[in-house]
Amino acid sequence: MTPLVERFARVLGARGIVDDPADMAPYLRDWRGLRDGASPFVLRPATVEEAAEVVKIAATEGLAIVPQGGNTSLVAGAVPDSGGRQIVVSLTRMNRIRQIDPIDRTMIAEAGVTLKAAQDAALEKACLFPLSLAAEGSATIGGVLATNAGGNTTIRYGNARDLMLGIEAILPDGRIWNGLRRLRKDNTGYALRHLFAGSEGTLGLITAASLRLFPAPVDRAVAFCALRDEDAALALYRRFDARDARLRAFEYMSGAAVDLVRELIPGVSLPIASAGHYALVDLSSSDPSAGLRDIAESVLAEALETGEVIDATIAESQAQAEALWRIREEHSEAQRKAGLSIKNDVSVPVSAVPELLRAATAACVAILPGIRVAPFGHLGDGNIHFNLVQPEGGAAAFAAKNDALIAAVNSIVRRLDGSFSAEHGIGALKLDQLRDWRGGAEYEMFRAIKTALDPHGRFNPGKMLAEVDAP
Amino acid sequence: MTPLVERFARVLGARGIVDDPADMAPYLRDWRGLRDGASPFVLRPATVEEAAEVVKIAATEGLAIVPQGGNTSLVAGAVPDSGGRQIVVSLTRMNRIRQIDPIDRTMIAEAGVTLKAAQDAALEKACLFPLSLAAEGSATIGGVLATNAGGNTTIRYGNARDLMLGIEAILPDGRIWNGLRRLRKDNTGYALRHLFAGSEGTLGLITAASLRLFPAPVDRAVAFCALRDEDAALALYRRFDARDARLRAFEYMSGAAVDLVRELIPGVSLPIASAGHYALVDLSSSDPSAGLRDIAESVLAEALETGEVIDATIAESQAQAEALWRIREEHSEAQRKAGLSIKNDVSVPVSAVPELLRAATAACVAILPGIRVAPFGHLGDGNIHFNLVQPEGGAAAFAAKNDALIAAVNSIVRRLDGSFSAEHGIGALKLDQLRDWRGGAEYEMFRAIKTALDPHGRFNPGKMLAEVDAP
Fold this sequence. Notes:
Two copies of one chain form a homodimer. Chain A has 471 residues and is an alpha+beta fold. In chain A, 36% of the residues lie in helices and 20% in strands. Chain A has helices at residues 3-12, 21-28, 48-61, 115-124, 141-146, 154-157, 192-196, 230-242, 255-264, 292-306, 318-329, 331-337, 353-367, 395-400, 402-415, 431-437, 441-453, and strands at 17-18, 42-43, 64-68, 86-90, 97-101, 106-110, 127-128, 164-170, 176-179, 205-212, 214-215, 219-227, 247-254, 277-285, 309-314, 341-342, 345-347, 372-373, 376-378, 383-385, 388-389. In chain A, the strands form five sheets. In chain A, strands 15-12-14-13-19-20-17 form a seven-stranded antiparallel beta sheet, sandwiched between helices. Chain A has a five-stranded antiparallel beta sheet with strand order 5-6-10-8-9. Chain A has a four-stranded mixed beta sheet with strand order 1-2-4-3. Chain A is globular. Chain A starts with a helix and ends in an 18-residue tail after the last helix. The mean pLDDT of chain A is 96. At the A-B interface, strand 9, helix 7, helix 8 and helix 17 of A face strand 9, helix 7, helix 8 and helix 17 of B.
């Protein structure tokens, strides 16, 4: 053992250090397999005090830290670079629910608690922790807050930051900041928790968070609908929204995206007529007499009458509801199986979603005939995963057009006053886009804040903000 | 005219400068009449370009700027000090609604639009801008965002920051930052808008904001209830909340506070039996068939059965609903008429509200027998205005105990993990408390951010953060 690893071992014990190359591999490769980094070893503190000691030693040694939770970033945000001077600090051993209060509807969870474990802990107390996304079995509370994750339920409950009341973090000098308040109103100084949320590990190490809970739903209605066209998707969303119908999710899927799921995922079938566009509608309420099924039926009847909806089904059971959701949730896996793909995680004002779908599809087909344009996503909050899949047998041609396709989609998003990164963040992949889209005064404020809170640039260097040469 | 005022006059024209002492007076005295400041003149830009020019000139002249909206701060946050080197910049001429979109449910409003005008503009498009507070006829969008105002509807819609999608601001060097995005999801860099929200004018001049709207309510039920005790107030809140009853507000009032309204405000009467504790319950929905009155009746029937509720009435008309709300809204005016008062704007976790009410009442009565302990506030979000009113004829004794009474309430709030400033902020009045309660690493981060974004300390010096001696 080198002296450095010995210093860490004295703090963390043998269980807290991973240095076997085979054991380290999963920590060093990002979820999409785009980046392989190097780290002398991986540190796994089990308590906030251990985490603070780790950061202090790294500070005295001039080492950089890459915070990592479930390592499910889609923008390579939680793996080190290849230089070998960045140490991965994995929070997965900090996985305690410290407190859960069903009266206040709050929970204090450590950073390494998975999103699924947090949901389950809430449910045991007849509460709901509503954040929900495909990677919830692996993604952690620390990670979803550091990236301000969104997911399916933003239209009802907001993004991760909106579910957070307070944060505990290790600052770059190794001090513990305990900001774990549980208050809905607390106007005492700058909202530091909102600065750490979405900071992608560049300001410190989030070790715990106090979170909002909601009453657990007892009534639910889940419908799957075939739609006339893009405009019908928006119109149907507006019908439900205007009725105060307790929408929990409103997901859009293109016909091409659903076709990939039907072709490539065994055991998935479409329970309604096929179409060019689909919506999954999920209503939920803690009021047992909310009558959500009646509301869903009545809204769908109106939309069938106008022709917006071509065909629809409402789940008769929890199992049916899960089967409908599975069609939506298998989109990423189906696209992975179909070969090369490009993930454009974009957002636009909700009213512009139909225009985005039409214009970006036309632009991509013009660049590469045969391309499979397979958008899907969270229509209710304007966030569309405008994903592109290679033509069958056309990987090389697709790869050659990679940059042109991304540029074409982003140029339409820009015209529609949207964002090039709705919920995935910047990570290591979109540094140039951030500087381009948020340049000038805004980018300078980013840099000023980074310099003020992490003056030596020790936290997650090379992520979100392009590195500055040392002065 | 001095050369300085001439420079500003060239940018703003005569209408944009107030320099007559009588005309200036309302800009220099805070709403509670606690502070009288001095300013060489008051500047009133009408456009974002004028505002930017004003800040640039102030920067070159080394003058400080005090941003001001409706001047309704309860902590003297928007008036200058007495030194005469701080210039009030009033945003009230920037009062345009630049855009309103009922499909996206967004509005772009300039900083000087009053909260009431923003509500009315939304309503014209069958939308709701839900932020609601007593000063809404004067308070402005810029002010409510700079202070992250809360008010009555936080339990349903959140605080001001939760209703904000983007911000436009003049930075301390005079540059315009246009962050007026209208997206529900946009993970591109640090959340600067959340740093400006609640910054109390210390980081720059908010000139406009993009805001979230909601469907306008069409069904409503407003009830006024007499309660058995403090615990019953919490229990009743939980009954409504668990039913997904579309609570828009749940306001608590102590018997002493309501008695002051009945004594001192003409035309207000109590429509139910008198009691030691009351609640105002307001349900609203955009679904015409939501059946809110039935829900209210059913929940109240349960609570009458258990004895939590002693007596209750549900408004039969909009006029009756307004009459019930008037009892709540006249609290500040009644307390003003009753003589000296202390406003403790505190919050605790919701479950601790009954304990706060009991313990703080006992502590204050022990310090000053005869004191009128008259708490009221937003029980659903844990924010109680634990206000204290002088004994009749006992102003001097009350004033002598001012600090002891504040300390006694705050010490109980601290024990209950609460906050000394829930929604009013820090302003010029609570600088020491901020340093005390949020000291150490947290306060140092506040200072680092202030220095990073306003390095010369030009924006609202002496507010929120204690001034640092020049190096």
